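Field: sequence (string)
Field: structure_tokens (string)

Example rows 1 and 2, in order.
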Amino acid sequence: MEISELIRVSFISLSANKMRSILTMLGVVIGVAAVVAMISIGEGAKGLITKSIEGMGTNLLFVMAGQQKVGMGGHGMGSSQTLLLEDCDAITPATCPAVSLVAPEISKGASVKSSNKNTMTQIVGTNHLYPVVRNTNVAKGSFFTHVDVLIQRKVAVIGSTVVDNLFPNLEPVGKEMTINRIPFTIIGVLETKGQSGFTNVDDQILIPVTTFQKRVFGLNYLRNINVQVRSQDDMDLAQTQIENLLRKRHRITDPDNDDFTVRKQTDMLNRMNDITSAFTLLLGGIACISLLVGGIGIMNIMLVSVTERTREIGLRKALGATKFDVLTQFLIESIVLCVTGGIVGILCGIGMSYAISYIGNWNTSVSTNSILLSFGFSFGVGLFFGIYPANKASNLNCVEALRYE
């Protein structure tokens, strides 16, 4: 019997018990839909993070306070206060020829108030080069200048979320606001960039780093230094030059004792991609469990089907059907059941992905690989869990099968 004929017969056999076949496929449908949806969530997160890191700017190096490795006798990143504004000022094209531009950065959450409205947001201290280095444009007004940084002026450039919170339906440029009860004049509004990973970059206020340190928070250290390198080919050279300069300034002779970390933008991107890939694999693995449960349900129903059709099997063998014919018949029924459920599950998974994206405002990405993986997995489940029932059917004795009541 040809494969096409076997498939047709399989559909006839399965349609004889429509409700049972639908309920049996349900486990596969749910499993495949979950796999597609979970992988699309992971891929969406990966794409979002990649876009946000690439949107930071080009040819970037990040000099961060503290060592990358904690617990090795060094300073932990994020808690160290080893980078100073003087270190940032020392990194210039004269001292590090591969470097183009440098912008310091330090941030802290604070209460901001204007008229009768207030909000909690992130205050970022930096210099006049920040928009160029970090690929951030001003939509309205202007950015503060080098002179503003030198004289510690109380001026601010705010993000679009801050505008919505403090100045709904109003023009914010020229307005006054207070940061920790200190008055500031708004001179500009940043263009909307949206979510960056798990951070809303629109919910921040940029002020001169000297104003941040001396007038608002009383701090003398930096969180990190953003360095724009002359070209992509000079990334390694710039990293070496910066490390040598900071070791000399911090009187460090052994690189293992560095109290700072220099990272490339590409290193951060690769690291985040590794994390999101592991996240995607975990979600897909969890979803596959339900697909395996569906496969067990299919094997159980196929065993019941073999029992119910024992006389039919005996009759087929009596009319000349070989052991291989019977084995193939039941194996194809199992595969047809799983593949049909897989196709329905893929369609449901794609629908779930779009629903998550629309309702939850979360980026999802349905890839061809996830669809092929789900389809292949459903085929494999049908093959694997159909072997035992099919083998049992093919091994039935013709005479005993005909006598079965």
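Row 2 begins here:
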Amino acid sequence: MIVIRGVVLNVELAKTPSDQERGLSGRESMSPDRGMLFVFQRESSWGFWMKGMRFSLDIIWFDSNRKVIFIEENLPPCSPQYCPVYIPTASSMFVLEVNAGFVQAHGVSFGDTFNFLV
């Protein structure tokens, strides 16, 4: 579990390359109190796409200090003709996928941080 902006999220961790490639693709929906946290071994410009997704997401990129460095909101699933890759403008080590609207609903912005709950 993590907490961001006072909101507790049950997150599924995507640590292996296969988990990271699969992400949330193929799922019908996700509960509002859930998310997927991608944990990378090093900071880089990790790109994400919405291939195989069935619902829209907000994606939040964090640096190694767990500070928000980039946000993309209300990303729709890919269509057969169009599937962009979303790339942050700074290097990240953690990436959080949450339901579309989460960022706006909770006022998440650059510089915010998340913490792990034990």
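free_text_note (row 2): Residues 1 and 117 are 5 Å apart (CA to CA).
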